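Model the whole thing, not chain by chain.
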Amino acid sequence: MRLKLLTKVLAVAAIAFPLTTAVADAYELVIPATVYRTGPYAPNGIPFANGYGDYYRMLNERDGGIEGVKIKYLECETAYNTKQGVECYENTKGEGPSGALAYQPLSTGITYQLIPKASADKIPVFSMGYGRTSAANGKVFPYIFNFPATYWDQASVFVKYIGEKEGGMDKLKGKKIALVYHNSAYGKEPIRTLEELSKKHGFDLQLLAVDHPGQEQKATWLQVRRKKPDWVMMWGWGVMNQVAIKEAASIRFPMDRFIGVWWSGSENDVLPAGEAAHGYLSGAFHAAGDNFRAHDDIKRHVYDKGNGGGDRDRIGEVLYNRGLVAAMWTAEAIRTAMRIHNTKEVTGEHVRDGFEALNVDAKRLAVLGLEGFTYPVKITCENHQGPGKVALQQWDAKEKKWNFASDFYTPDADVVGKLIAEDSANYAAENNITPRTCN
Amino acid sequence: MLFLLETVVSGLLAGVMYSLVALGFVLIFKASGIFNFAQGVFALFAGLALYDFIADDGWFYHMFGFVLPVWAGIIATMGVMIIVAWLVEFLVLRHLVNQEPIILFMSTIGLAYFLEGLGDTLFGSDVKPLDIGLPHGAVDFLLDDYNFYVEKLEIVAAVVAAVLVVVLAVFFQKTRIGRALRAVADDHQAALSVGISLRTIWVIVWSVSGFVALVAGIMWGSKSGIQFSLSLIALKALPVLILGGFTSVPGAIIGGLIIGVGEKVAEVYAGPFVGSAIENWFAYMLALAFLLFRPQGLFGEKIIERV
Amino acid sequence: MFYREAGQFKTSYRADQGILTIVQDRFVIGAFAFVAFCVVPFFINDYWANAILIHVLVYVLAALGLNILTGYCGQVSLGTGGFMAVGAYASYKLITAFPEMNFIVAILMSGGITAAVGVVFGLPSLRIKGFYLAVATLAAQFFLVWVFNKFGWFFNYSPTGMIVSPPREVFGFLVTGPQASPEARYLFCLSFVVVFALAAKNIVRGRVGRSWMAIRDMDIAAELIGIRPLEAKLTAFAVSSFYIGVAGALYFNVWLGSAEPTEAFDINQSFFVLFIIIIGGLGSILGSFLGAAFMVLVPITLKTVMVDGFGFAVGAAKHAEVMLLGTLIILFLIVEPHGLARLWQILKEKLRRWPFPY
C-alpha cells in the first residue's frame, strides 16, 4: 500500500519533469554568478547578488547589453558551499555559444576550486579582492584577477591608518594590535602580512581565532579585556560580525579603534548592535549610498519595470554597491575585449585580454554614472591586483549610514609585493607552472 | 585573580545559554526517546515567527496593519509552535512509532531541513535585529568600580533559565499532565495500558520543547539578531547534553555550567599556548572525559543491559 | 517471473556461498558494471564527471566505510568529516613530500594512516554507547579539523591553510589537477569503489563481519559467546576509517582538487555521510550506493527541474529544494524505515511473483 503511494509520487514527479530544449538564440554574453541567497551567510550574499545582477539587467534594458550584445545573466545557488559551487561551475561554464565569460566565485573555497579549473578552461575568474591573494601575480595566474585591492593590501593599509592616528609610523613601536579572525582560509589571509608588518614597525600582534559560525565569542573578548590591545582588527563574516561588534560594545572597547575588513562593514553587521556601533570602522574601496547616476538608472530601467533583484529601498547598501562595482568592472572588461579583438562575439580568452587591458579611469567612471564611486583602476598583464588602494569608512549610527573616514591609502608595496612573489612562486613550483612572460 | 573570577562567571553565564538549548533536547528525549536534531531549527523558527509578529516589516504587519506588543507576540508564537508540534506528531511521529532511535533521529533531520526551508521562504533570510527590551551591555557599576565585566543579557538569561527549570519541575511533579509525561518517559506500554494517550503526550512534549526553543531563540536572537546561524546553536548544546545525560533536566543545567566554565577557562588560559579557538573541541573532549567515568552522563539514568 | 530462481541448483558449497547466487542478479550487476566501465567513459563530460559521477562515487566509498562501523558494528559515528580530513591531509603530505611515489600507493597509505587515527578515537567506544558515542565522536571531528587548520606543517605553511592537489599520474594518465581528463578521473574512482565494495562485501560475510554484527545486535550476548568486544570494535573502527580515509584522499585529490579543513571537512560532511547510510540502508553494501546516489542526485535534480525547468528564482528554488529534500527523507522513512536497499529487496520479491501475486 505504502509502496504504491510512493510509486505514484515518483510517477507524478517524473511526468512533471519538463523537457528542456535548447533554443538557438542570437549571440549572448553569458555571465554566470555563483551566489548564495541561502545558508548561514545569506544575509550578506543577497545584497551582493542583487547589486551584481541589477547592473547587468540595467545594461540590458538601457543599452541593450554591452555594445548592443545582450547579457545573459545566470544565477546559480551555492549556499556558500564549495561542493555546490563545483556543480554550478560545471553546469554554467559551457552555456550558450560564448561559454561563460567571467566568474565571480564569491567564496574563498570556491575561488580556490576554480583557480586551476578555470585556468584550464580559459575562463577568467574575477575574485574581487578575495580568494587567493598571490593571484595578483598575472605571470603565474593568467586567468585570475583580484583587483582592486587584496586582503594583504588592506591589512597594510589598516596598519598605516593606525600609524597615522597614533601620530606617525614610529609611534607604532610597542603598541598592541589584536586580530580577531574567522578561523578559515579567508580569515587567516592577513596573518602573514601582519606578522611581517609587526616585525617592521615593532608593534605587538595578537591573534584571536573565532570558529565558524561565531555566535559565542565570550572567550575572545575576555582575552581582549585581559591583554588590552590598543587597536582591534577583524576579519569576520556572517553572524560573527554582529556578535563581535556587540561584544566589543559591551566591554566598552572604543569603536573608533575597531577596524573590520570590508566584509565586516555592511549595514547588516552594525544594525543589530544599534547605537553602540557608532564610530565602528571598516575597509572600503567604493562608496556607500544610492546617490549616483547608475543607481538612478537601475531604479528607472529595472525596478520601475518590476525586474529588480531585491527591495527598492535597499539599493545602495554597502554590499549591494560591491556587487554593482564588480559587475561594472566585469562589463567594462568585456567591452575592452570587444574593442581590442574587434569582435562582438567574445569568448573567455578574449575577456581575459579585456581584463588585462582594463583601464577604468575617473573619466570613464563619470561616463558610467559612477563619478567618485571608486578610484581609477588599471590592470596589466603582470599586475592583476590593480592599485590596491583602500580607504576606511565609519558607521554613523544616528544617520544609519557609512561615511568615508579617510582618503584612499596606498598599501605597503615592499611587504605585500614580496609575499605575493613568494607565494605565487610556491604555487608555480607545486603545480609545474612556468610563469609566462609579459610584454 | 579577579580576571579568573570574571572568566568563570562569564563561563557560567555562557553555559546557561547552552543549557537553554539543551533543555529542549532533554524534554523530547525523555518523553519519547527521540534525539531531536531539529531543536536548533525550532529555536530559529520560533525566533523568526516572534519577530514577524512584533516587527513592522513582517507578514503580520502587512496583513493586519498593526504589530503585536511583545507579550502578545510571545503568546502568538507559542500558538505557532503548538501547531508545529501537532503537525509533527500528526505527519511524522505517528507513522514512525516503535522504530529504532536512529531512524527517528533521521526523521528529525528531515524535519529540520523542512523547517529551515520553510522559515526562509516565509520570513526571508535577512538578519532581523530582535529587540524586545531586554537589557544588554556590561553591568555598569561592576565595570566602573571594580573593573569586572558581566553581560546584562546573560544575567537575564540565567534568571529566565532558573524560572524555566522551576516551572518545568512544578509542571512535571505537580500537574496531571506532568505525571502522565513521567509515566510515558518511564515506560511507553505501561503508560498506554493505564489509559494515557501517547499521542496527546507527544504533542504536549513537543509543544513544551517548542516553548523552550522560543526562549532560547529570544536569548540567542537578542545577542546576534535572528538569522539562519541561530539553527547552528544546537551544536553548542550537544556536549552539554552528553555531559549532563540525555534524560535529565538538572543535568542539562549543570552540564551547561561545567562546559561553559571549562571551555572559557581553557580558551583564555590555555588557548594562547596551544593556539586559539580550542573551545569547540575542548567542550567535547571535556564531555568525553566525564563519559569515560559515567557512560550515561552525569545525571543520566543508569543503562542496564540484560541478555 | 523476472526474478524466479526456480531451476537454479547449486552443486557445490562454493557456488552456494557466492555473492550473487541468482543468474538474474549476476546479469543485472554485470550489465551495470559493463555500462559503468565501458559505456559511460565514452559519454562522460566535465559536468557529469565533476558534478555527479565522481561526487557520488566518493560518497559511496565514505558511506561504505561508515556503514561498516555503524551499519554492521552498530557504533554510531559523527567523526566522518574528521577522518576524511585525515585521509586528505595524509595524501597531501605524502604526494608533496615524495613526488615520485606511486599515487595509488599514496592513497592506500593515507587510508592506513586514517585507520590508525580511527583506532585511537575508537577507544572510547569500549565504554560509551549509542548516541553518547555519536556525540563523543564529534570530539574527534572538531579536534582533527582544528589540528589541520592550526599546524602549518600539515598544509606546507601556505598562508591560508588551503591545500591544493598537485598533478599526479596513474599508468601514464593524469588523475589529479585541472588537466586530468574526466574519463581518467572517473575510471580511477570507479575502480577504487568497485574493489573496495567487493572487499567490504566479503569482509562482512566473513568471520570478522559476523563478529561485528554480533556486537551490533547485542554486545553482552556477543561477549558471552566468545567474541572479544575490544577486537571487534577496534577492527571495525580501523577498517571503517581506512575506507573513509581513502574516500577523503579521493575527495580532495581527484574530486575537489583543493580544500580547506573548516569547510570541506566540517561537521556537515559527517552528517551527510550518516544520512546516506540511513537513507540507503544500515548494514547494506548496496544501500551505500543507493543512499549516496539519492542524497547527491535528488538535490541536483530538484534544482535543475525548478531553476531550469520552471524558471524559479535561485534563492526560492533552494528553499523549496531543502523543504522537498526534508519531506522526501521523512516520506522514505515512513514508507520503508530500513532504507532504499530494503525497498529494492521488496521490489525483487514482487518481481519474482509478478504477474501472479498470491
